[in-house]
Amino acid sequence: MKLNARxxxxxxxxxxxxxxxxxxxxxxxxxxxxxxxxxRQRLTPEDVKLAAYRLSRYIRTS
Length: 62
Fold this sequence. Notes:
2 helices; single chain; rod-shaped
């Protein structure tokens, strides 16, 4: 068993890059946009209460 086995050298010019320039910024921006979109789609109990209150006011005034 060889402890000092030679590793195959990879040319950084010919091999694909591990990350593209600006990739981390794109991923962070996409994460933030997804987080905002998820908050916008969430229906909270306060939303339901407000809708019920407005509906009851609308029915009473009609």
